[in-house]
Amino acid sequence: MTNTIKKWLIIVLLSLFSVASYAETSASITVDRAWGLLLGDEIKATATITELQNNLDLNSLPQPEKRYGAWVYLKTLDVVGDELEFTYQVVNVPKTNTTIELPLYEISDAKGNIITIPTTTVSIGPLLSLEEAERLQLKADHAPVLLAVDEFEQQLEMAITVAAILSLILLFWHFGWKPSNRQPFAQAVHELSRLRWQRSKDENQPARILHAAFNQTAGTIVVHKELAKLFESIPWLSSLESDIEQFYQLSSGHFFSREAGQEPEMAEVVKLAKACRAKEKLA
């Protein structure tokens, strides 16, 4: 009798020990927001695992960046100690407010023991109720808002007017009043510059322009034989005597000899005109 009792006590103790050793691991889940969820909203769900004796088998965890069911998409899944942090996004909504269940998962630890991540319910719905959506009518595009440009137009008109007046003044100055008040060699330099731009085919024109400047400066027609009188009456040209003498010599041989010699070169004429203009400004 005593042996039978001892035998049964040993069996009961072994059973209790076995149950304690293999206590089932469980999990609970909570969400940060369970109602009023609309399309695009995120849901933070935290699953807490109790009595976790072994490490989790990461390969058994749900795959993130994947849609689960008709309503939610699992964006991320993080393991923090004995907690699993799920981030869902609502990717579909029904026509009316509806209570749905988040996905249920079965995962395992390193020894293959199954752990069930329970589901929980949340409420999702459309932004507008069905009645409001039926009454909703699209409005026609409104007319564009015109910016006030009156002040800008006035400023633009004023700027154009001022530019036109200044242009007329410059044209009058350049072709009207200024040429009539230019000194002889200043006018000669101006006309020679215009010839270079116009590419005149008259090869004698540069020399004629410079002769006109000498005649106007002297107040009479200057000829080669009377250059001494020019230097006496216009002493500030004396320092250019050799250059002027050479110009008149070439010019006389070209214009007044039976066998026309070579005309003064354009570059030399321009050089002499500029040199005379420099003296003219200092006179």
Short précis:
The protein has 283 residues and is α+β, with helices and mostly antiparallel strands. The chain has eight helices and nine strands.
What does this structure look like?
It contains eight helices and nine strands. The longest helix has 32 residues, at 150-181. The radius of gyration is 54 Å and the shape is rod-shaped. It has two domains: 23-126, Sandwich (Immunoglobulin-like); 180-282, no CATH class. Strands 1-2-5-4-3 form a five-stranded antiparallel beta sheet, with no helix packed on it. Helices cover 45% and strands 18% of the residues. By secondary structure, it is α+β, with helices and mostly antiparallel strands. Mean pLDDT is 81; it is low at 16-23. Helix 4 (184-198) runs antiparallel to helix 5 and helix 4 packs antiparallel against helix 8. Strand 4 (72-80) and strand 5 (83-90) form a beta hairpin.
Please write out the topology.
Blueprint: H1 2-21, E1 26-31, E2 42-50, E3 66-68, E4 72-80, E5 83-90, E6 98-101, E7 105-108, E8 114-117, E9 121-124, H2 130-135, H3 150-181, H4 184-198, H5 205-218, H6 227-233, H7 241-255, H8 266-282
Antiparallel strand pairs: 1-2, 2-5, 3-4, 4-5, 6-9, 7-8
Helix pairs in contact: 4-5, 4-8
